[in-house]
């Protein structure tokens, strides 16, 4: 009913708009009075966490892209190597895992069979498994050594949106907690990161408030192929943007690492080809910003229609962008919580404009309980 959808057309629209709350709730109640992260629910000895020498994230679909974002943050904050692997690939290739490996399983439903099999395999090799799960009482948290729940609330639409933002948020908490336990960061540094994180829900709301611009572009999109480019944490965002479009609108879509463009994908660019580009913050480290701007120039010169996601005030993108979807300033590692939102709105609106059922796309299931 429309009441269940909170007045929105579809569950997907509602869940996209629930995202500031999904992130806020996932952050709530996870610090003590002194402002230190407190994840008691983990029930893993701090000594075990201090001994971890490798993290392997296992997940499927959108949850795997949350893991991909986590890799950037956790390696940067904790200096622990992080691998991210699709659960079904991990399980069948004889991966190197042992007592010092922390396997992090990310799953909205907690029931994905591929992910469950990866969890069991990891435990057989002696690894500890920590799961990041949205659904209480499901199978994967029951079998895990530790659980960090996301508080996105029930996600009804088959394709994941708010659970994704909550998963990313939970991995930030995990990364900062590991940094706290292992002494990689001073308490005031962690407090600063947490303050940045707590500012994100309002910024996500700002992106939602600007959604009409994306919707207008989506309604007029008549291409049957869309490309997505991103770099650093923008890369998994590009992959997720492409996945949303495949799932919801049945359009051929592909995400690429922007640096890979010249190694192949640029051959796909012909006049009129729509390409989304997620531009890193101009305040970020290294010269990634200017490299991605060069990528936009290169594809524009070949006739691409450039749909650019950029930070407020980034004047450099303007000369080469056909459209700019602005997002508020944020620390680079946290920026996926903002930059993915226009891509979700785009896929949802395009599919709706084509008369498709965005809540229940063809051939897909909310939780895949078979291998
Ligand atoms: C299915 C859904 C996807 C989801 C994936 C993983 O394929 O259609 O939206 O990302 O499963 O689900 P999980 O519940 O493990 O996060």
TrEMBL record:
<feature type="domain" description="SIS">
    <location>
        <begin position="44"/>
        <end position="184"/>
    </location>
</feature>
<dbReference type="GO" id="GO:0004360">
    <property type="term" value="F:glutamine-fructose-6-phosphate transaminase (isomerizing) activity"/>
</dbReference>
<keyword id="KW-0032">Aminotransferase</keyword>
<dbReference type="GO" id="GO:0006487">
    <property type="term" value="P:protein N-linked glycosylation"/>
</dbReference>
<keyword id="KW-0677">Repeat</keyword>
<dbReference type="GO" id="GO:0005829">
    <property type="term" value="C:cytosol"/>
</dbReference>
<comment type="function">
    <text>Catalyzes the first step in hexosamine metabolism, converting fructose-6P into glucosamine-6P using glutamine as a nitrogen source.</text>
</comment>
<feature type="domain" description="SIS">
    <location>
        <begin position="216"/>
        <end position="361"/>
    </location>
</feature>
<dbReference type="GO" id="GO:0006047">
    <property type="term" value="P:UDP-N-acetylglucosamine metabolic process"/>
</dbReference>
<protein>
    <recommendedName>
        <fullName>Glutamine--fructose-6-phosphate aminotransferase [isomerizing]</fullName>
        <ecNumber>2.6.1.16</ecNumber>
    </recommendedName>
</protein>
<keyword id="KW-0315">Glutamine amidotransferase</keyword>
<keyword id="KW-0963">Cytoplasm</keyword>
<dbReference type="GO" id="GO:0097367">
    <property type="term" value="F:carbohydrate derivative binding"/>
</dbReference>
<feature type="active site" description="For Fru-6P isomerization activity">
    <location>
        <position position="366"/>
    </location>
</feature>
<dbReference type="GO" id="GO:0006002">
    <property type="term" value="P:fructose 6-phosphate metabolic process"/>
</dbReference>
<dbReference type="GO" id="GO:0005975">
    <property type="term" value="P:carbohydrate metabolic process"/>
</dbReference>
<comment type="subunit">
    <text>Homodimer.</text>
</comment>
<keyword id="KW-0808">Transferase</keyword>
């Amino acid at each position: 009913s429309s009441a269940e959808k909170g007045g929105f057309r579809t569950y997907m629209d509602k869940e996209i708009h629930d995202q500031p709350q999904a992130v806020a709730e996932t952050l709530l109640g996870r610090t003590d009075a002194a402002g230190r992260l407190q994840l008691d629910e983990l029930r893993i000895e701090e000594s075990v966490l201090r001994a971890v020498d490798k993290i392997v994230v296992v997940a499927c679909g959108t949850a795997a892209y949350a893991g991909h974002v986590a890799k950037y943050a956790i390696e940067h904050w904790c200096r622990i190597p992080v691998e991210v692997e699709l659960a079904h690939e991990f399980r069948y290739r004889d991966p190197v895992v042992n007592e010092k490996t922390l396997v992090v399983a990310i799953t909205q439903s907690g029931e994905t069979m591929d992910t469950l099999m990866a969890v069991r395999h990891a435990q057989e090799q002696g690894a500890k498994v920590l799961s990041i799960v949205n659904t209480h009482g499901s199978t994967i948290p029951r079998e895990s050594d530790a659980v960090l729940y996301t508080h996105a609330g029930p996600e009804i639409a088959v394709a994941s949106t708010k659970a994704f933002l909550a998963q990313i948020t939970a991995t930030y908490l995990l990364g900062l907690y590991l940094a706290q336990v292992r002494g990689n960061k001073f308490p005031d540094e962690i407090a600063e990161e947490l303050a940045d994180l707590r500012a994100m829900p309002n910024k996500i709301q700002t992106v939602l408030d600007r959604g009409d611009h994306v919707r207008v572009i989506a309604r007029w999109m008549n291409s049957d192929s869309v490309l997505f480019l991103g770099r650093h944490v923008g890369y998994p965002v590009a992959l997720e943007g492409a996945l949303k479009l495949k799932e919801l609108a049945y359009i051929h879509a592909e995400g690429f690492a922007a640096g890979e463009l010249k190694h192949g994908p640029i051959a796909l660019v012909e006049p009129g080809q729509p390409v989304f580009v997620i531009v890193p913050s101009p305040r970020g480290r290294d010269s990634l910003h200017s490299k991605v701007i060069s990528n936009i120039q290169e594809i524009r010169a070949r006739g691409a229609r450039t749909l650019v996601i950029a930070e407020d005030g980034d004047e450099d993108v303007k000369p080469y962008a056909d459209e700019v979807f602005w997002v508020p300033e944020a620390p680079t590692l946290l920026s996926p919580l903002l930059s993915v939102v226009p891509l979700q709105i785009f896929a949802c609106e395009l599919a709706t404009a084509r008369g498709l059922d965005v809540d229940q796309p063809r051939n897909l299931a909310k939780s895949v309980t078979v291998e």
